[in-house]
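Field reference: "sequence" (input) and "structure" (output). Example, glutathione-specific gamma-glutamylcyclotransferase:
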Amino acid sequence: MALTDELVSLSLRPAVDVGPEPHRTPLTEAEVEMLANRLLDESIGAPLWIFAYGSLIWKPDFDAVESQLGATRGWHRSFCLQMTRWRGTRAQPGLMMALDRGGRCNGIVFRLADDDRLGQIRRLIRREVGTIEDAATVRWIPVATAHGLVRALVFWAGPKGERVSRKLPLETVAQVLARACGHMGSCAEYLYLTVKHLEERGIRDRNLWRLQKLVADELVAIHGLNAAAGSH
């Protein structure tokens, strides 16, 4: 990988959380409960699988009893969501990864423990959803595994709205990811951890592999390093 711990450290800086993004409506506890119970009802009678394609691979928030490589058709990873919180700010917005329509995505499916299924779904909603506008990105998708097809829950699939920027050139995405940082860390760090953990699982996403090289080049240029220094 061209993107390294050393380069990523250059993208990190302190940031203050200024609170919820404007024009977005946080989920109330009642709405979290309603969504969690709906997903619970939809999952009854089958194992509960979660399809992880990004941060849930390297920072899960559930009790998994099994994991497998999985692939879903009709979706691909895309840094298509502008964000002004978490790993970006209003002064320097970042881009978050979601699943967008088309192509194929290789990731990991995790089977959750049956104990406290509702509680685990609730935790995932609080972590992944947050606002009413984002609830529609939670969906069930078919995922192919070595042992057959499973029905898995996925977050941030098919986002819509004014924050969505589709088909951005990778060079443009790299410029954003190399510069954006919020109170939860930088976009470069998010990309680095995702690519690193995908590689450890034997998954190479062609676009993300190219993107990490572009972000590394951006960080080298921003901080006035020479290419040789950035590669070590």
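The CA atoms of residues 17 and 179 lie 17 Å apart.
DSSP finds eight helices and seven strands in the chain.
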